[in-house]
Amino acid sequence: MKKWLKSRKGQQTVIIVSFAVIPLFLLVLFTYLPFVQMVEFSFFKMKYLTPPDKRVFVGFKNYIDVLTRDDCFKALKLSIYYCIGALVQLALALFLATILSFKVKGGNIFKGMMFFPYLISGIAIGFIFKFFYTRGFVLDSVLQLFGFDAEQLPYWLKDQKVNNWSLVATSIWRYFGQNMVLFIGAIMSVDNELYEAASLDGANKFQQFFHIILPSIKTIVTLNVILSITGSLSAFEPPYVITGGANGTGTYFVIMNEIAHVTQKVGLASAMAVILLLIIFACTILQKLFFKYIFRSSED
Amino acid sequence: MKQNMRKISSVFLNAIKYIILIFFSLVAVVPVVSCVFTAFKTSEEYQTTSVMAMPGNWLNFDNFIKAFQTANMGQAFVNSLAVMLCVLAVSVLVGTQLAYILNRFSFPGNGLIRNLFLFASLLPSIAMQVTVYKIMSVLGLVNHLYGYIIMMCGTDVISIYIFIQFMENISVSLDESAIIDGASYFQIYWKIILPLLRPAIVTACILKGVAVYNEYYCANLYLMDKSIRTMSTSLYTFVGPMGSQYNLICAGVLISLLPALIVFIICQRQIYSGITAGAVKG
Prior knowledge:
The complex is a heterodimer of chains A (300) and B (282). Chain A has helices at 2-6, 8-41, 61-68, 70-101, 107-115, 122-133, 138-145, 163-188, 192-200, 205-233, 237-242, 252-261, 266-299, and strands spanning 44-45, 56-57. Chain A is mainly α. Chain A has a domain at 79-250: MetI-like (MetI-like fold, Orthogonal Bundle). The radius of gyration of chain A is 25 Å and the shape is flat. In chain A, 40% of the residues are buried. Chain B is mainly α and 282 residues long. Chain B has two domains: 2-48, no CATH class; 72-281, MetI-like fold. Chain B has 14 helices and no strands.
Protein backbone atom coordinates (compact mmCIF):
# COMPACT_ATOMS: atom_id res chain seq x y z
CA MET A 1 0.00 0.00 0.00
CA LYS A 2 2.70 2.43 1.01
CA LYS A 3 4.66 1.55 -2.06
CA TRP A 4 1.61 2.09 -4.24
CA LEU A 5 1.11 5.55 -2.77
CA LYS A 6 4.66 6.47 -3.69
CA SER A 7 4.32 5.24 -7.24
CA ARG A 8 3.36 7.68 -9.98
CA LYS A 9 0.01 6.01 -10.46
CA GLY A 10 -0.70 6.21 -6.74
CA GLN A 11 0.24 9.86 -6.55
CA GLN A 12 -2.01 10.61 -9.48
CA THR A 13 -4.94 8.90 -7.81
CA VAL A 14 -4.35 10.85 -4.61
CA ILE A 15 -4.25 14.20 -6.38
CA ILE A 16 -7.28 13.41 -8.53
CA VAL A 17 -9.38 12.39 -5.56
CA SER A 18 -8.28 15.27 -3.34
CA PHE A 19 -8.83 17.88 -6.04
CA ALA A 20 -12.19 16.54 -7.14
CA VAL A 21 -13.81 15.88 -3.80
CA ILE A 22 -14.77 19.44 -2.74
CA PRO A 23 -16.21 20.69 -6.04
CA LEU A 24 -18.13 17.46 -6.52
CA PHE A 25 -19.45 17.57 -2.97
CA LEU A 26 -20.74 21.12 -3.48
CA LEU A 27 -22.18 20.19 -6.85
CA VAL A 28 -24.05 17.22 -5.44
CA LEU A 29 -25.24 19.06 -2.34
CA PHE A 30 -26.54 22.19 -4.06
CA THR A 31 -27.48 20.92 -7.49
CA TYR A 32 -28.09 17.19 -7.81
CA LEU A 33 -29.61 16.49 -4.41
CA PRO A 34 -32.11 19.34 -4.84
CA PHE A 35 -32.76 18.13 -8.36
CA VAL A 36 -33.72 14.66 -7.12
CA GLN A 37 -35.79 16.09 -4.28
CA MET A 38 -37.57 18.40 -6.67
CA VAL A 39 -38.78 15.47 -8.73
CA GLU A 40 -39.84 13.69 -5.54
CA PHE A 41 -41.65 16.69 -4.00
CA SER A 42 -43.56 17.36 -7.18
CA PHE A 43 -45.74 14.32 -6.42
CA PHE A 44 -46.70 15.48 -2.94
CA LYS A 45 -48.82 18.10 -1.28
CA MET A 46 -46.54 19.61 1.36
CA LYS A 47 -44.97 22.67 2.98
CA TYR A 48 -41.31 23.14 3.85
CA LEU A 49 -41.78 22.09 7.45
CA THR A 50 -44.14 19.18 6.79
CA PRO A 51 -42.50 16.06 8.29
CA PRO A 52 -41.98 13.28 5.70
CA ASP A 53 -44.74 11.06 7.13
CA LYS A 54 -47.36 13.84 6.94
CA ARG A 55 -46.89 14.53 3.24
CA VAL A 56 -49.83 13.64 1.06
CA PHE A 57 -49.06 11.76 -2.14
CA VAL A 58 -51.10 13.29 -4.93
CA GLY A 59 -49.69 11.65 -8.05
CA PHE A 60 -49.69 13.89 -11.09
CA LYS A 61 -52.15 16.39 -9.64
CA ASN A 62 -49.51 19.11 -9.26
CA TYR A 63 -48.53 18.76 -12.89
CA ILE A 64 -52.15 18.94 -14.01
CA ASP A 65 -52.54 22.02 -11.81
CA VAL A 66 -49.61 23.78 -13.42
CA LEU A 67 -51.13 23.28 -16.85
CA THR A 68 -54.66 24.21 -15.83
CA ARG A 69 -54.24 26.87 -13.13
CA ASP A 70 -54.77 30.26 -14.63
CA ASP A 71 -51.70 31.93 -13.11
CA CYS A 72 -49.15 29.23 -13.99
CA PHE A 73 -50.31 28.62 -17.51
CA LYS A 74 -50.61 32.33 -18.28
CA ALA A 75 -47.05 32.79 -17.06
CA LEU A 76 -45.90 30.05 -19.39
CA LYS A 77 -47.60 31.80 -22.29
CA LEU A 78 -46.00 35.05 -21.19
CA SER A 79 -42.57 33.67 -21.99
CA ILE A 80 -43.54 33.80 -25.68
CA TYR A 81 -43.26 37.58 -25.37
CA TYR A 82 -39.77 37.19 -23.94
CA CYS A 83 -38.85 34.71 -26.67
CA ILE A 84 -39.82 37.17 -29.37
CA GLY A 85 -37.88 39.83 -27.49
CA ALA A 86 -34.85 37.57 -27.34
CA LEU A 87 -34.93 37.04 -31.10
CA VAL A 88 -35.11 40.80 -31.67
CA GLN A 89 -32.24 41.20 -29.24
CA LEU A 90 -30.07 38.65 -31.06
CA ALA A 91 -30.79 40.17 -34.45
CA LEU A 92 -29.94 43.61 -33.14
CA ALA A 93 -26.78 42.34 -31.46
CA LEU A 94 -25.66 40.61 -34.65
CA PHE A 95 -26.34 43.73 -36.71
CA LEU A 96 -24.39 46.00 -34.35
CA ALA A 97 -21.58 43.47 -34.01
CA THR A 98 -21.19 43.38 -37.77
CA ILE A 99 -20.99 47.17 -37.96
CA LEU A 100 -18.51 47.34 -35.10
CA SER A 101 -16.26 44.61 -36.46
CA PHE A 102 -15.42 46.80 -39.46
CA LYS A 103 -13.33 49.90 -38.97
CA VAL A 104 -15.25 52.36 -36.80
CA LYS A 105 -13.91 55.46 -35.11
CA GLY A 106 -14.56 55.34 -31.38
CA GLY A 107 -15.74 51.75 -31.74
CA ASN A 108 -14.61 50.86 -28.24
CA ILE A 109 -16.65 53.65 -26.69
CA PHE A 110 -19.80 52.58 -28.53
CA LYS A 111 -19.14 49.00 -27.53
CA GLY A 112 -18.59 49.97 -23.91
CA MET A 113 -21.75 52.05 -23.66
CA MET A 114 -23.89 49.31 -25.12
CA PHE A 115 -22.28 46.58 -23.04
CA PHE A 116 -22.38 48.26 -19.64
CA PRO A 117 -26.08 47.54 -18.85
CA TYR A 118 -25.12 43.86 -18.60
CA LEU A 119 -23.09 44.63 -15.47
CA ILE A 120 -25.91 46.39 -13.61
CA SER A 121 -27.76 44.31 -11.04
CA GLY A 122 -31.28 43.18 -11.86
CA ILE A 123 -32.69 45.10 -8.92
CA ALA A 124 -31.02 48.35 -9.99
CA ILE A 125 -32.31 47.80 -13.53
CA GLY A 126 -35.76 47.30 -12.06
CA PHE A 127 -35.64 50.69 -10.35
CA ILE A 128 -34.12 52.45 -13.35
CA PHE A 129 -36.95 51.26 -15.57
CA LYS A 130 -39.71 51.77 -13.07
CA PHE A 131 -38.59 55.39 -13.13
CA PHE A 132 -38.13 55.31 -16.90
CA TYR A 133 -41.67 54.16 -17.64
CA THR A 134 -43.60 56.13 -15.01
CA ARG A 135 -46.22 58.47 -16.43
CA GLY A 136 -44.64 61.79 -17.42
CA PHE A 137 -41.10 60.63 -16.69
CA VAL A 138 -38.16 59.64 -18.85
CA LEU A 139 -39.74 57.78 -21.77
CA ASP A 140 -42.68 60.17 -22.03
CA SER A 141 -40.37 63.20 -21.96
CA VAL A 142 -38.11 61.77 -24.62
CA LEU A 143 -41.05 60.92 -26.85
CA GLN A 144 -42.44 64.42 -26.37
CA LEU A 145 -39.14 65.80 -27.63
CA PHE A 146 -39.84 63.90 -30.83
CA GLY A 147 -43.27 65.44 -31.09
CA PHE A 148 -45.50 62.79 -29.57
CA ASP A 149 -48.56 64.00 -27.71
CA ALA A 150 -48.23 63.17 -24.02
CA GLU A 151 -51.96 62.58 -23.66
CA GLN A 152 -51.96 59.94 -26.38
CA LEU A 153 -49.20 57.84 -24.87
CA PRO A 154 -50.25 54.68 -23.07
CA TYR A 155 -49.50 53.88 -19.45
CA TRP A 156 -46.44 51.76 -20.18
CA LEU A 157 -46.74 49.60 -17.07
CA LYS A 158 -50.49 49.46 -16.52
CA ASP A 159 -51.98 49.13 -19.96
CA GLN A 160 -52.19 45.40 -20.59
CA LYS A 161 -51.71 45.93 -24.32
CA VAL A 162 -48.17 47.21 -23.89
CA ASN A 163 -46.93 46.47 -20.40
CA ASN A 164 -45.37 43.11 -21.21
CA TRP A 165 -43.60 44.60 -24.19
CA SER A 166 -42.25 47.34 -21.92
CA LEU A 167 -40.78 44.68 -19.64
CA VAL A 168 -39.42 42.70 -22.58
CA ALA A 169 -37.70 45.86 -23.80
CA THR A 170 -35.99 46.10 -20.43
CA SER A 171 -34.60 42.66 -20.89
CA ILE A 172 -33.42 43.46 -24.43
CA TRP A 173 -31.73 46.60 -23.07
CA ARG A 174 -29.96 44.53 -20.46
CA TYR A 175 -28.58 41.79 -22.69
CA PHE A 176 -28.12 43.06 -26.25
CA GLY A 177 -24.69 44.50 -25.51
CA GLN A 178 -23.48 41.24 -24.03
CA ASN A 179 -24.68 39.30 -27.08
CA MET A 180 -23.01 41.90 -29.28
CA VAL A 181 -19.63 41.49 -27.56
CA LEU A 182 -19.98 37.76 -27.96
CA PHE A 183 -20.70 38.03 -31.68
CA ILE A 184 -17.86 40.52 -32.18
CA GLY A 185 -15.55 37.92 -30.63
CA ALA A 186 -16.84 35.30 -33.03
CA ILE A 187 -16.55 37.56 -36.07
CA MET A 188 -13.01 38.57 -35.11
CA SER A 189 -11.96 34.93 -35.08
CA VAL A 190 -12.83 34.67 -38.77
CA ASP A 191 -9.71 34.71 -40.89
CA ASN A 192 -8.99 38.28 -41.99
CA GLU A 193 -7.72 37.18 -45.38
CA LEU A 194 -11.23 36.10 -46.30
CA TYR A 195 -12.48 39.69 -46.09
CA GLU A 196 -9.53 41.00 -48.02
CA ALA A 197 -10.01 38.44 -50.75
CA ALA A 198 -13.72 39.21 -50.85
CA SER A 199 -13.28 42.95 -51.18
CA LEU A 200 -10.66 42.43 -53.87
CA ASP A 201 -13.27 40.41 -55.72
CA GLY A 202 -15.61 43.38 -55.38
CA ALA A 203 -17.98 41.94 -52.80
CA ASN A 204 -19.89 44.64 -50.95
CA LYS A 205 -20.56 44.69 -47.21
CA PHE A 206 -23.89 42.89 -47.50
CA GLN A 207 -22.38 40.10 -49.56
CA GLN A 208 -19.53 39.85 -47.10
CA PHE A 209 -22.03 39.51 -44.27
CA PHE A 210 -24.13 36.79 -45.85
CA HIS A 211 -21.34 34.82 -47.49
CA ILE A 212 -18.48 35.10 -45.01
CA ILE A 213 -19.59 36.31 -41.59
CA LEU A 214 -22.89 34.49 -41.18
CA PRO A 215 -21.69 31.04 -42.30
CA SER A 216 -18.63 31.16 -40.07
CA ILE A 217 -20.49 32.14 -36.91
CA LYS A 218 -23.71 30.21 -37.45
CA THR A 219 -22.84 27.77 -34.68
CA ILE A 220 -22.65 30.44 -32.04
CA VAL A 221 -25.75 32.19 -33.36
CA THR A 222 -27.81 29.01 -33.21
CA LEU A 223 -26.48 28.26 -29.76
CA ASN A 224 -27.62 31.66 -28.59
CA VAL A 225 -31.03 31.33 -30.16
CA ILE A 226 -31.56 28.18 -28.15
CA LEU A 227 -30.07 29.67 -25.00
CA SER A 228 -32.41 32.61 -25.39
CA ILE A 229 -35.42 30.31 -25.16
CA THR A 230 -34.12 29.11 -21.80
CA GLY A 231 -33.43 32.69 -20.81
CA SER A 232 -36.92 33.77 -21.80
CA LEU A 233 -38.45 31.26 -19.44
CA SER A 234 -36.23 32.52 -16.62
CA ALA A 235 -37.09 36.24 -16.68
CA PHE A 236 -37.44 37.35 -13.12
CA GLU A 237 -35.96 40.54 -11.68
CA PRO A 238 -37.37 43.27 -13.94
CA PRO A 239 -41.02 42.21 -13.56
CA TYR A 240 -40.42 41.45 -9.88
CA VAL A 241 -39.25 44.99 -9.13
CA ILE A 242 -41.04 47.03 -11.77
CA THR A 243 -44.57 45.70 -11.53
CA GLY A 244 -44.40 43.00 -8.88
CA GLY A 245 -46.22 40.81 -11.38
CA ALA A 246 -49.33 43.03 -11.34
CA ASN A 247 -51.61 43.60 -14.34
CA GLY A 248 -50.78 40.32 -16.01
CA THR A 249 -47.00 40.70 -16.00
CA GLY A 250 -46.15 37.85 -13.62
CA THR A 251 -43.54 35.72 -15.39
CA TYR A 252 -43.06 32.04 -14.59
CA PHE A 253 -40.43 32.72 -11.96
CA VAL A 254 -42.39 35.52 -10.31
CA ILE A 255 -45.33 33.12 -9.92
CA MET A 256 -43.08 30.25 -8.85
CA ASN A 257 -41.39 32.41 -6.26
CA GLU A 258 -44.76 33.31 -4.80
CA ILE A 259 -46.05 29.75 -4.78
CA ALA A 260 -42.87 28.35 -3.22
CA HIS A 261 -41.89 30.96 -0.68
CA VAL A 262 -45.04 32.92 0.10
CA THR A 263 -47.89 30.41 0.01
CA GLN A 264 -45.44 27.50 0.51
CA LYS A 265 -47.11 25.11 -1.92
CA VAL A 266 -43.80 23.29 -2.29
CA GLY A 267 -45.23 20.39 -4.30
CA LEU A 268 -46.80 22.67 -6.85
CA ALA A 269 -43.68 24.82 -7.10
CA SER A 270 -41.56 21.71 -7.63
CA ALA A 271 -43.87 20.57 -10.40
CA MET A 272 -43.49 24.01 -12.00
CA ALA A 273 -39.72 23.71 -11.79
CA VAL A 274 -39.74 20.20 -13.26
CA ILE A 275 -41.89 21.32 -16.19
CA LEU A 276 -39.51 24.20 -16.79
CA LEU A 277 -36.55 21.82 -16.73
CA LEU A 278 -38.29 19.50 -19.20
CA ILE A 279 -38.74 22.41 -21.60
CA ILE A 280 -35.09 23.34 -21.19
CA PHE A 281 -33.97 19.75 -21.82
CA ALA A 282 -36.15 19.63 -24.91
CA CYS A 283 -34.45 22.77 -26.19
CA THR A 284 -31.02 21.34 -25.46
CA ILE A 285 -31.78 18.10 -27.27
CA LEU A 286 -33.14 20.13 -30.16
CA GLN A 287 -29.86 22.01 -30.23
CA LYS A 288 -27.81 18.80 -30.26
CA LEU A 289 -29.89 17.36 -33.09
CA PHE A 290 -29.65 20.61 -34.95
CA PHE A 291 -25.87 20.59 -34.78
CA LYS A 292 -25.65 16.93 -35.56
CA TYR A 293 -27.84 16.82 -38.67
CA ILE A 294 -28.25 20.27 -40.15
CA PHE A 295 -24.71 21.55 -39.77
CA ARG A 296 -22.95 18.34 -40.52
CA SER A 297 -24.89 17.80 -43.71
CA SER A 298 -24.12 21.33 -44.88
CA GLU A 299 -20.44 20.75 -44.36
CA ASP A 300 -20.31 17.52 -46.35
CA MET B 1 -18.69 59.31 -62.79
CA LYS B 2 -19.09 55.80 -61.51
CA GLN B 3 -16.23 56.37 -59.12
CA ASN B 4 -17.96 59.50 -57.85
CA MET B 5 -21.19 57.64 -57.24
CA ARG B 6 -19.30 55.06 -55.29
CA LYS B 7 -17.68 57.70 -53.17
CA ILE B 8 -20.97 59.40 -52.42
CA SER B 9 -22.69 56.17 -51.52
CA SER B 10 -19.82 55.16 -49.27
CA VAL B 11 -19.93 58.51 -47.46
CA PHE B 12 -23.67 58.05 -47.11
CA LEU B 13 -23.31 54.51 -45.75
CA ASN B 14 -20.66 55.71 -43.36
CA ALA B 15 -22.97 58.40 -42.01
CA ILE B 16 -25.78 55.89 -41.53
CA LYS B 17 -23.39 53.60 -39.70
CA TYR B 18 -22.55 56.28 -37.16
CA ILE B 19 -26.16 57.39 -36.79
CA ILE B 20 -27.15 53.83 -35.96
CA LEU B 21 -24.32 53.43 -33.46
CA ILE B 22 -25.05 56.75 -31.78
CA PHE B 23 -28.74 55.94 -31.60
CA PHE B 24 -28.26 52.60 -29.86
CA SER B 25 -25.57 53.95 -27.58
CA LEU B 26 -28.05 56.62 -26.50
CA VAL B 27 -30.71 53.97 -25.97
CA ALA B 28 -28.26 52.14 -23.71
CA VAL B 29 -27.20 55.24 -21.82
CA VAL B 30 -30.29 57.46 -21.49
CA PRO B 31 -32.04 55.44 -18.74
CA VAL B 32 -28.90 55.62 -16.62
CA VAL B 33 -28.21 59.28 -17.41
CA SER B 34 -31.74 60.30 -16.41
CA CYS B 35 -31.03 58.53 -13.15
CA VAL B 36 -27.82 60.54 -12.69
CA PHE B 37 -29.69 63.82 -13.32
CA THR B 38 -32.39 62.93 -10.84
CA ALA B 39 -30.03 61.77 -8.12
CA PHE B 40 -28.53 65.26 -7.80
CA LYS B 41 -31.85 67.07 -7.51
CA THR B 42 -33.42 68.37 -4.32
CA SER B 43 -36.92 67.09 -3.59
CA GLU B 44 -38.40 70.40 -4.65
CA GLU B 45 -36.44 70.46 -7.88
CA TYR B 46 -37.41 66.86 -8.56
CA GLN B 47 -41.09 67.69 -8.27
CA THR B 48 -41.01 70.83 -10.39
CA THR B 49 -38.53 70.14 -13.20
CA SER B 50 -38.63 67.69 -16.09
CA VAL B 51 -36.77 64.44 -15.46
CA MET B 52 -34.54 65.14 -18.42
CA ALA B 53 -33.53 68.58 -17.13
CA MET B 54 -30.10 68.84 -15.56
CA PRO B 55 -29.94 69.46 -11.83
CA GLY B 56 -29.27 73.00 -10.60
CA ASN B 57 -26.37 71.97 -8.43
CA TRP B 58 -24.09 69.12 -9.49
CA LEU B 59 -22.54 69.03 -6.03
CA ASN B 60 -25.75 68.29 -4.17
CA PHE B 61 -24.83 64.95 -2.58
CA ASP B 62 -27.68 65.01 -0.02
CA ASN B 63 -29.61 62.21 -1.74
CA PHE B 64 -26.54 60.00 -1.84
CA ILE B 65 -25.89 60.51 1.84
CA LYS B 66 -29.52 59.93 2.75
CA ALA B 67 -29.84 56.84 0.53
CA PHE B 68 -26.60 55.47 1.92
CA GLN B 69 -27.86 55.87 5.47
CA THR B 70 -31.48 54.78 5.12
CA ALA B 71 -30.64 51.59 3.24
CA ASN B 72 -27.63 50.98 5.49
CA MET B 73 -25.47 50.60 2.43
CA GLY B 74 -22.17 50.84 4.27
CA GLN B 75 -22.86 47.61 6.13
CA ALA B 76 -24.30 46.09 2.97
CA PHE B 77 -21.18 46.94 1.02
CA VAL B 78 -18.96 45.33 3.66
CA ASN B 79 -21.15 42.23 3.58
CA SER B 80 -21.11 42.05 -0.20
CA LEU B 81 -17.37 42.51 -0.25
CA ALA B 82 -16.87 39.75 2.33
CA VAL B 83 -19.11 37.39 0.40
CA MET B 84 -17.35 38.19 -2.83
CA LEU B 85 -13.82 37.73 -1.49
CA CYS B 86 -14.63 34.40 0.18
CA VAL B 87 -16.54 33.06 -2.79
CA LEU B 88 -13.86 34.11 -5.27
CA ALA B 89 -11.02 32.68 -3.19
CA VAL B 90 -12.69 29.31 -2.73
CA SER B 91 -14.13 29.02 -6.21
CA VAL B 92 -10.82 29.92 -7.85
CA LEU B 93 -8.91 27.37 -5.77
CA VAL B 94 -11.48 24.66 -6.27
CA GLY B 95 -12.04 25.51 -9.92
CA THR B 96 -8.36 25.58 -10.91
CA GLN B 97 -7.73 22.34 -9.04
CA LEU B 98 -10.58 20.63 -10.82
CA ALA B 99 -9.49 22.05 -14.16
CA TYR B 100 -5.96 20.85 -13.46
CA ILE B 101 -6.90 17.21 -12.96
CA LEU B 102 -9.44 17.27 -15.79
CA ASN B 103 -6.91 18.68 -18.21
CA ARG B 104 -3.74 16.84 -17.14
CA PHE B 105 -4.92 13.32 -16.31
CA SER B 106 -7.13 10.92 -18.14
CA PHE B 107 -8.99 8.83 -15.62
CA PRO B 108 -12.33 7.02 -15.58
CA GLY B 109 -14.96 9.63 -14.77
CA ASN B 110 -13.15 12.55 -16.38
CA GLY B 111 -15.81 12.93 -19.06
CA LEU B 112 -18.56 12.27 -16.55
CA ILE B 113 -17.40 15.12 -14.28
CA ARG B 114 -17.32 17.53 -17.22
CA ASN B 115 -20.82 16.50 -18.21
CA LEU B 116 -22.12 16.80 -14.66
CA PHE B 117 -21.00 20.43 -14.57
CA LEU B 118 -22.28 21.11 -18.06
CA PHE B 119 -25.68 19.64 -17.22
CA ALA B 120 -25.80 21.62 -13.97
CA SER B 121 -25.44 24.84 -15.94
CA LEU B 122 -28.73 24.05 -17.65
CA LEU B 123 -30.64 24.14 -14.37
CA PRO B 124 -31.80 27.69 -13.66
CA SER B 125 -30.75 28.74 -10.19
CA ILE B 126 -34.07 30.33 -9.18
CA ALA B 127 -35.96 27.15 -9.99
CA MET B 128 -33.50 25.07 -7.96
CA GLN B 129 -34.02 27.21 -4.87
CA VAL B 130 -37.44 25.61 -4.35
CA THR B 131 -35.63 22.58 -2.93
CA VAL B 132 -32.21 24.05 -2.10
CA TYR B 133 -34.10 26.09 0.49
CA LYS B 134 -35.12 22.89 2.22
CA ILE B 135 -31.52 21.62 2.30
CA MET B 136 -30.21 24.95 3.54
CA SER B 137 -32.69 24.98 6.40
CA VAL B 138 -31.97 21.36 7.36
CA LEU B 139 -28.25 22.18 7.49
CA GLY B 140 -28.93 25.32 9.54
CA LEU B 141 -27.35 27.57 6.93
CA VAL B 142 -30.29 29.94 6.56
CA ASN B 143 -29.85 33.49 7.87
CA HIS B 144 -26.07 33.22 8.25
CA LEU B 145 -23.63 35.01 6.00
CA TYR B 146 -21.39 31.92 5.98
CA GLY B 147 -24.30 29.74 4.86
CA TYR B 148 -24.88 31.94 1.85
CA ILE B 149 -21.14 31.96 1.13
CA ILE B 150 -20.93 28.15 1.22
CA MET B 151 -23.85 27.87 -1.14
CA MET B 152 -22.25 30.26 -3.64
CA CYS B 153 -18.78 28.69 -3.46
CA GLY B 154 -19.27 25.91 -5.95
CA THR B 155 -17.46 26.30 -9.23
CA ASP B 156 -19.29 26.59 -12.51
CA VAL B 157 -18.79 25.27 -15.98
CA ILE B 158 -17.79 28.62 -17.45
CA SER B 159 -14.91 29.13 -15.01
CA ILE B 160 -13.77 25.54 -15.52
CA TYR B 161 -13.92 26.08 -19.23
CA ILE B 162 -11.88 29.29 -19.04
CA PHE B 163 -9.24 27.52 -16.91
CA ILE B 164 -9.04 24.41 -19.09
CA GLN B 165 -8.81 26.43 -22.27
CA PHE B 166 -5.93 28.40 -20.83
CA MET B 167 -4.23 25.32 -19.45
CA GLU B 168 -4.18 23.69 -22.86
CA ASN B 169 -1.65 26.33 -23.84
CA ILE B 170 0.63 25.58 -20.89
CA SER B 171 3.09 23.01 -22.18
CA VAL B 172 2.99 19.61 -20.52
CA SER B 173 6.78 19.46 -20.82
CA LEU B 174 6.90 21.95 -17.94
CA ASP B 175 5.10 19.40 -15.77
CA GLU B 176 7.37 16.62 -16.95
CA SER B 177 10.61 18.40 -16.25
CA ALA B 178 9.32 19.30 -12.79
CA ILE B 179 8.55 15.64 -12.14
CA ILE B 180 12.09 14.72 -13.13
CA ASP B 181 13.28 17.29 -10.62
CA GLY B 182 11.26 15.42 -8.00
CA ALA B 183 8.23 17.68 -7.67
CA SER B 184 4.93 16.21 -6.53
CA TYR B 185 1.72 16.81 -8.47
CA PHE B 186 0.53 19.25 -5.85
CA GLN B 187 3.75 21.24 -6.19
CA ILE B 188 3.31 21.32 -9.96
CA TYR B 189 -0.19 22.69 -9.53
CA TRP B 190 0.80 25.20 -6.87
CA LYS B 191 4.15 26.40 -8.20
CA ILE B 192 3.79 26.10 -11.97
CA ILE B 193 0.18 25.91 -13.12
CA LEU B 194 -1.47 28.32 -10.70
CA PRO B 195 0.93 31.24 -11.28
CA LEU B 196 0.76 30.78 -15.05
CA LEU B 197 -3.03 30.73 -14.94
CA ARG B 198 -3.15 34.28 -13.62
CA PRO B 199 -4.74 35.95 -16.66
CA ALA B 200 -7.45 33.28 -16.77
CA ILE B 201 -8.04 33.66 -13.04
CA VAL B 202 -8.45 37.43 -13.40
CA THR B 203 -11.01 36.91 -16.18
CA ALA B 204 -12.96 34.27 -14.27
CA CYS B 205 -12.89 36.38 -11.08
CA ILE B 206 -14.27 39.47 -12.77
CA LEU B 207 -17.14 37.55 -14.35
CA LYS B 208 -17.97 35.66 -11.20
CA GLY B 209 -17.37 38.70 -8.99
CA VAL B 210 -19.90 40.78 -10.88
CA ALA B 211 -22.40 37.93 -10.78
CA VAL B 212 -21.96 37.47 -7.02
CA TYR B 213 -22.12 41.20 -6.35
CA ASN B 214 -25.36 41.51 -8.32
CA GLU B 215 -26.99 38.33 -7.01
CA TYR B 216 -30.34 39.08 -5.47
CA TYR B 217 -32.61 36.06 -5.33
CA CYS B 218 -30.66 33.83 -2.96
CA ALA B 219 -29.41 36.73 -0.86
CA ASN B 220 -33.03 37.73 -0.33
CA LEU B 221 -34.08 34.17 0.43
CA TYR B 222 -31.30 33.20 2.82
CA LEU B 223 -30.25 36.45 4.49
CA MET B 224 -33.21 37.86 6.38
CA ASP B 225 -31.58 39.89 9.16
CA LYS B 226 -30.99 43.55 8.41
CA SER B 227 -27.38 43.29 9.56
CA ILE B 228 -26.43 40.73 6.90
CA ARG B 229 -28.03 42.33 3.86
CA THR B 230 -25.97 42.58 0.68
CA MET B 231 -25.95 45.49 -1.78
CA SER B 232 -28.76 44.03 -3.89
CA THR B 233 -31.05 43.26 -0.98
CA SER B 234 -30.41 46.60 0.70
CA LEU B 235 -31.22 48.36 -2.57
CA TYR B 236 -34.49 46.45 -2.70
CA THR B 237 -35.61 48.08 0.57
CA PHE B 238 -36.41 51.20 -1.47
CA VAL B 239 -39.43 49.36 -2.86
CA GLY B 240 -41.48 50.02 0.24
CA PRO B 241 -42.27 53.37 1.89
CA MET B 242 -39.86 55.41 -0.25
CA GLY B 243 -41.25 53.94 -3.48
CA SER B 244 -41.91 57.28 -5.16
CA GLN B 245 -38.96 59.35 -3.98
CA TYR B 246 -37.03 58.71 -7.12
CA ASN B 247 -34.29 61.24 -6.41
CA LEU B 248 -33.36 59.12 -3.41
CA ILE B 249 -33.82 55.79 -5.23
CA CYS B 250 -31.70 56.93 -8.17
CA ALA B 251 -28.92 57.89 -5.77
CA GLY B 252 -29.12 54.42 -4.22
CA VAL B 253 -29.03 52.79 -7.65
CA LEU B 254 -25.95 54.80 -8.61
CA ILE B 255 -24.14 53.94 -5.38
CA SER B 256 -24.82 50.27 -6.01
CA LEU B 257 -23.57 50.32 -9.60
CA LEU B 258 -20.48 52.42 -8.95
CA PRO B 259 -18.22 49.45 -8.08
CA ALA B 260 -19.30 47.63 -11.25
CA LEU B 261 -18.60 50.76 -13.29
CA ILE B 262 -15.11 51.13 -11.83
CA VAL B 263 -14.29 47.48 -12.47
CA PHE B 264 -15.64 47.82 -15.99
CA ILE B 265 -13.51 50.86 -16.81
CA ILE B 266 -10.36 49.23 -15.47
CA CYS B 267 -10.86 45.69 -16.77
CA GLN B 268 -12.81 46.10 -20.00
CA ARG B 269 -10.53 43.81 -21.97
CA GLN B 270 -10.67 40.94 -19.49
CA ILE B 271 -14.45 41.20 -19.27
CA TYR B 272 -14.85 40.98 -23.02
CA SER B 273 -12.47 38.04 -23.28
CA GLY B 274 -14.35 36.31 -20.47
CA ILE B 275 -17.66 36.75 -22.26
CA THR B 276 -16.24 35.31 -25.46
CA ALA B 277 -14.46 32.44 -23.71
CA GLY B 278 -17.54 31.48 -21.76
CA ALA B 279 -19.64 31.48 -24.86
CA VAL B 280 -17.85 29.01 -27.07
CA LYS B 281 -18.35 26.13 -24.69
CA GLY B 282 -21.35 24.81 -26.68
